[in-house]
Amino acid sequence: MFLLNGERRHCVDVSDRGFQYGDGLFETIAVYQGKPLFLQQHLDRLRAGCQRLFIPYPEQDQLKAEVKQLCEGSDTAVLKIIVTRGSGGRGYRQPDSIVPTRLLSLHPFPEYPANFQTDGVVLRFCQQRLASNPVLAGIKHMNRLEQILARAEWQGDAIQEGLMLDYDGHVVEGTMSNLFFVKDGVLYVPLLTYCGIVGIVRQKVVSLAQYNQIGIVEKQFDKTRVLEADEVFVTNSVIGIWPVKQLDQQCFKVGRITRRMQQWYAEARTEELKL
Ligand SMILES: Cc1ncc(COP(=O)(O)O)c(C=O)c1O
């Protein structure tokens, strides 16, 4: 199901700058009982991304009404919102007046085995690195070639996610998720000032840690720090929180802080869906 600029169609003009250059932003949102989870936080990040790229942010009430229209009646699904700079301009030069394209689409929720949540998943380090660009860091822009190349490094179902480093050897995030690890009761999370996406679940986990008085440190780490961790987990809007049971050759137990975080996140989700 699609809504393109408010209409039930899905054929985007080939001159659209999203198609031509990846000149746009997107959000991937979990939908439960027909309700998009943490919609406001996703729209806030979308707005921040639009501001960063100088794309006019669509009318928020209209966007919300369209989201509601698309999600109503569905049960569990994944909602994707794309906003591009629209068509026009000459080459990279933007048109004088920008008319953004907005595309909302609803997709089946991926069926991950339940034991990914309970027993954990297997990760690897990827060869492909993330380039540093503080202007593009944090936002969910449409240029994801690094993630696509990283994800192409492994096939099959034995490994669920790959971790990516920057060119200075700092661990940044997964190909589709943010990374956390625990050492001696403290939660550590990579700094995303130079690359990476500031995930909505990452923000939730950080605030849940602060609320529950778990010490949290945000900085740059190399891979040995992660391999020496007591607990590791990855997050995104669709998977929620997946504990990590193995990273390359290193095995981890699903620890106490990961479990508590999953519990608090589940409670926050339930609360949000009641609203
Ligand atoms: C590269 C990358 N980092 C982080 C995330 C996590 O973001 P969120 O928690 O908003 O889903 C994603 C989600 O797709 C991602 O693709």
UniProtKB/TrEMBL annotation:
GO CC term (a single one): cytosol
One BP term from GO: folic acid biosynthetic process
Presence of keyword Kinase: no
Cross-referenced Pfam families: Aminotran_4
Known EC number: 4.1.3.38
Transmembrane segments: none
Reactions listed under catalytic activity: 4-amino-4-deoxychorismate = 4-aminobenzoate + pyruvate + H(+)
UniProt GO MF annotations: 4-amino-4-deoxychorismate lyase activity; pyridoxal phosphate binding
Class of enzymatic activity (EC top level): lyase
Pathway(s) this gene product operates in, as recorded in its UniProt entry: Cofactor biosynthesis; tetrahydrofolate biosynthesis; 4-aminobenzoate from chorismate: step 2/2
SUPFAM superfamilies on file: D-aminoacid aminotransferase-like PLP-dependent enzymes (SSF56752)
Alphabetical keyword list: Folate biosynthesis, Lyase, Pyridoxal phosphate
Cofactor needs: pyridoxal 5'-phosphate
Keyword Lyase attached: yes
Free-text function comment from the UniProt entry: Involved in the biosynthesis of p-aminobenzoate (PABA), a precursor of tetrahydrofolate. Converts 4-amino-4-deoxychorismate into 4-aminobenzoate (PABA) and pyruvate.
Subunit (UniProt): Homodimer.
Family: Belongs to the class-IV pyridoxal-phosphate-dependent aminotransferase family.
Protein name: Aminodeoxychorismate lyase
